[in-house]
Design brief:
The complex is a heterodimer of chains A (about 90) and B (about 170). Chain A is of the alpha+beta class and about 90 residues long. Chain A has one helix and four strands, in the order H-E-E-E-E. Chain B contains two helices and 14 strands. Chain B is elongated. Classes of the chains: A alpha+beta (about 90), B mainly beta (about 170).
C-alpha cells in the first residue's frame, strides 16, 4: 500500500536542516547523511549528498528527475564492477 | 596496434552445429557484432562474429573458424577484445570508461590525488572511483563540470576540484 497523500513525503528532519544550512552557506560541500529512507524533495535539487551505504558515503548529485525517489536508491550497498567495454560517461 | 578492450566472453557452445553462447559487456549488447573481428587477449587469434539470436543471458552466434560443437566447447571462457580505435568517436564531455580508467587525478593546485580505479553510475551521475596514497581506501568523485573541470585524454590527467568533505 502506498503512503497516504495527506501525510506528505517523509524526510528525516536532520536532512532538511543540513540541506538548508548548506544552501544558505553557498559552499561547495558534500552533505553527509545516513537517512536512506528520506524522500528527495524539490529543494534538494543542485545539492550533493553523501548517502551512507553501510560502508562509506556515496556522492549523489540531486537533479530534477530524482524528486520523489528515496536517497537509498542511489547508494547501492553491494559493489559490482562489471566491464568497462564501450560504456560512456557524460560530464553534466 | 591500439589498446584492446574486453567487449565480451564465450560462455560455451550452443546447440550441436558450432554455434557459441556469448556474453556481451557492451552498453548496447547487440553492438558487439559491430566491433567484429574480435581477438583474444594476446591478439594472436582473430574471430569474425555473426549473431544469430538473443538467448537467456546473452546471444548465440557463429565465430569464424569455429565450426563444430567441440571447437566451441574448447574456447569456453575466452574473452573477446576489440581495438580501442574501433569504438566510435564521442562528442565533447563524453568519455569512454576505458579511457578514464588509469588516468591521474590532480587537484587545482597540482597535487596528485590518485588514479581512476573505475567509473561507476548508480543512477545519479557518473562517479570516478579514485585510489592513491592520499586516499584511505577509495573515494568517489562526481563526474560533473564543477567537480572535474578538465579532462586531458592526451596527457592522461584529470584536474579535479572536489567538494569539501569528499575525502
Amino acid at each position: 500500500m502506498s503512503r497516504s497523500v495527506w501525510k506528505g513525503p517523509f524526510v528525516d528532519s536532520y536532512v532538511l536542516k543540513k540541506a538548508e544550512a548548506a544552501r544558505e552557506s553557498g559552499r561547495n560541500e558534500v552533505i553527509k547523511i545516513w537517512s536512506r529512507r528520506s524522500t528527495i524533495l524539490p529543494q534538494f535539487v543542485g545539492l550533493t549528498f553523501g548517502v551512507y551505504n553501510g560502508h562509506k558515503h556515496i556522492p549523489v548529485n540531486v537533479s530534477e528527475d530524482m524528486i520523489g525517489q528515496k536517497f537509498g536508491e542511489y547508494s547501492p550497498t553491494r559493489t559490482y564492477y562489471g566491464h568497462a567495454a564501450d560504456k560512456k560517461a557524460k560530464r553534466k | 596496434m591500439s589498446e584492446l578492450i574486453c567487449v565480451g566472453a564465450i560462455a560455451g557452445s550452443y546447440g550441436v552445429r558450432g554455434e557459441v553462447r556469448l556474453k556481451s559487456f557492451c552498453a548496447v549488447p547487440e553492438e558487439i557484432e559491430a566491433y567484429s573481428p574480435l581477438s583474444s587477449e594476446d591478439g594472436s587469434q582473430s574471430y569474425s562474429l555473426t549473431l544469430t539470436r538473443a538467448i537467456k543471458g546473452g546471444f548465440s552466434g557463429y565465430l569464424g573458424g569455429v565450426e563444430t560443437k567441440e571447437q566451441a566447447d574448447a574456447i569456453k571462457g575466452l574473452k573477446l577484445f576489440a581495438p580501442r580505435d574501433r569504438l566510435p568517436s564521442l562528442p565533447s564531455d563524453e568519455y569512454y570508461y576505458a579511457d578514464l580508467v588509469g588516468m591521474e587525478v590532480y587537484d587545482t593546485g597540482g597535487v596528485l590525488l590518485g588514479t581512476v580505479k573505475s567509473v561507476q553510475n548508480h543512477g545519479a551521475s557518473d562517479l570516478l572511483e579514485l585510489q592513491g596514497e592520499a586516499i584511505k581506501g577509495t573515494a568517489l568523485l562526481p563526474f560533473t563540470m564543477a567537480a572535474v573541470p578538465t579532462v586531458d585524454l592526451e596527457q592522461g590527467r584529470i584536474i579535479a576540484d572536489p567538494p569539501e568533505g569528499l575525502f
